[in-house]
TrEMBL record:
This is Uncharacterized protein. It comes from the Bacteria.
Length: 88
């Protein structure tokens, strides 16, 4: 049996709506487009004051014109996880 650590796998395919988790801590982000049509990582970590905002100062890292630029700048610090929305 082979175990693959997806955090080191550069071939992850990211798209709008994907949930990412930081490699360094338990921060969670959602890939979204902001009001300037740039890709950014919106903070969705529970119990944070600045989460669910696409203002440039509230997002993790910088915002990028293309998804490929966003991926290249971000993939080494974040990894994609399976996630689902639960509405109660």
């Amino acid at each position: 049996m082979e175990i693959i650590d997806k955090r080191t796998k550069k071939e992850e395919h990211w798209q709008l709506g994907d949930v990412l988790v930081a490699n360094s801590d338990d921060s969670k982000g959602l890939i979204v487009k902001n009001s300037n049509a740039e890709y950014c990582l919106m903070n969705i970590t529970p119990d944070k004051r600045w989460n669910y905002s696409t203002a440039e100062d509230d997002c993790f890292g910088d915002c990028y014109k293309t998804l490929s630029d966003f991926y290249e700048a971000t993939y080494s610090d974040w990894h994609k996880v399976n996630a689902k929305l639960v509405i109660e």
